[in-house]
């Protein structure tokens, strides 16, 4: 038997329940069509790549992991969390809710 719980609040959800919502998201790098110029064709790409690799080694950036080209995500949500998510999918409302005291 499948067990579902809300990925936000952790509430148990019945598999056949109408109060279970699925949100699917896909994130990927935007690729705009590149327009070649004369400068692009005149540049030495091998030399530029060697320079970038040298800079990475000097800066210690070789341990940084590259970003994935795309990522698909799936979330199960209860009705309450789904309504909140749909109303503010990027969570912008919560960013401005800090209320600091005036010390």
What is the topology?
Layout: E1 4-5, E2 12-13, E3 20-28, H1 38-42, H2 45-59, E4 70-78, H3 79-87, H4 92-95
Antiparallel strand pairs: 1-2, 3-4
Structural class: alpha+beta
Q: Count up the helices.
A: 4
Task: Give the rounded overall mean pLDDT.
Answer: 82
How many independent structural domains? 1
Strand order of the largest sheet: 1-2
N- and C-termini, Cα separation? 55 Å
Calculate Rg over CA atoms: 23 Å
In this structure, how is the largest beta sheet organized? Answer: 2 strands, antiparallel
Low-confidence stretches are none
Order of helices and strands: EEEHHEHH
- Tell me the strand percentage band: 15-25%
Helix percentage: 25-40%
* 3D shape: elongated
Q: How many strand units?
A: 4
Question: How would you characterize the overall build of this protein?
Answer:
The chain is of the alpha+beta class and 103 residues long. It has one domain (4-91). 32% of the residues lie in helices and 21% in strands. It has helices at 38-42, 45-59, 79-87, 92-95; strands spanning 4-5, 12-13, 20-28, 70-78. The radius of gyration is 23 Å and the shape is elongated. The N and C termini lie far apart (55 Å). The model has no long low-confidence stretch (mean pLDDT 82).
């Amino acid at each position: 038997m499948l067990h579902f719980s809300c990925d936000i609040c952790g509430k148990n959800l019945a598999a056949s329940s109408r109060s279970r919502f699925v949100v699917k998201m896909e994130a990927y790098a935007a690729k705009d069509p590149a327009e070649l110029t004369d400068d692009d064709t005149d540049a030495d790409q091998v030399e530029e790549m060697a320079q970038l690799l040298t800079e990475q080694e000097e800066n210690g950036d070789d341990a940084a992991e590259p970003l994935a080209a795309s990522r698909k995500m799936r979330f199960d949500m209860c009705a309450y969390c789904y309504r909140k998510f749909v109303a503010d999918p990027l969570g912008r409302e919560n960013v401005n809710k800090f209320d600091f005291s005036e010390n």
